[in-house]
Amino acid sequence: MKKRIFSGAQPTGELHLGNYLGATKNWVELQNDYDSMFCIVDLHAITVPQDPLVLRRKTLDLARIYLAAGIDPDVSTVFVQSAVPAHAELAWALNCIAKMGELQRMTQFKDKSGGKSESASVGLFTYPVLMAADILLYQTDLVPVGQDQKQHLELTRDIAERFNRDYGETFVVPDPYILKAGAKILSLKDPSKKMSKSDPNENATIFLMDDPDTVMRKVRKAVTDSGTTVEFDENRPAINNLLTIYRMLTGKSEEDCVTEFEGRGYGEFKPALGETVVEFLRPFQERYKQFDDEELKNILKAGAEKARELARTTIDNTYKNLGLR
Ligand code: TYM
Question: Is the pTM of this model over 0.85?
């Protein structure tokens, strides 16, 4: 039997190169070797206010992005979280297992609530528990994510281990799958921050739907560190980040990238990087346009049916072990 992977993304804002290089690209590479589940986590999205019409649109658009990136619905199960009620059911049970102190330590909550935890929704606070439910529901072995989700994965493991200890073997304890390259793509304007959907600086993030002129402008305006050589160097995060993007999109080795730009400065590297991103996005955006809404809805419906069936077994087991029903 194949091992299982589960991952997901929120249907808010627009997906960017960080999401692709940190997560989606790995999903595509892993999908044939694992029993793969890729979810559109709309229940996570509503932890902050959303316009219902926009959310519905973005949910379908995210499915389109998964497929355009190379997720094959004949190989992987693609579905929307809210179409499988067991996510919310398991989240409630796990809310009774997770500790306030554990959730208070989550850095993403601190970031997203902007230090104003009093006015953040309770859902935003317990967001990592819903994420644990997503993963544990499918007896997941491996979770391919970017670096920013590592802490949530550790919490998921802790919750699973505690539950198994106190109520009997119920969940597979999952491992994170975080590759070194691409796990944290940085903002193009401030390499002390990760690339993010919600960055107020419009040149900080390259979105997967950006047109060629926009991509070229963003790359041209990307900040650089002191020093003029084009090299991988942990101490020069700006050029390190740009070269990582270049390397991952071209598939070249680190050595080949460095040799290619030896003796040539940013003036030559930046246009080459811009072109590489544009040439990656062109076929991606073409594929994006190919899927119509009806086709997507059918794929999501079939995915949800399969997911519901798998999830039912875990929910029944969990509730039984807790003494419910
Ligand atoms: P989300 O929607 O914020 O991001 C989706 C994926 O993209 C990765 N990512 C990045 N990787 C590299 N560099 C970046 N700058 C960057 N920004 C984002 C994220 O790590 C993620 O893998 N909570 C999750 C969604 C989720 C989930 C799950 C994931 C819900 N349940 C269960 C895995 C398993 C989130 O908000 O991802």
Answer: yes
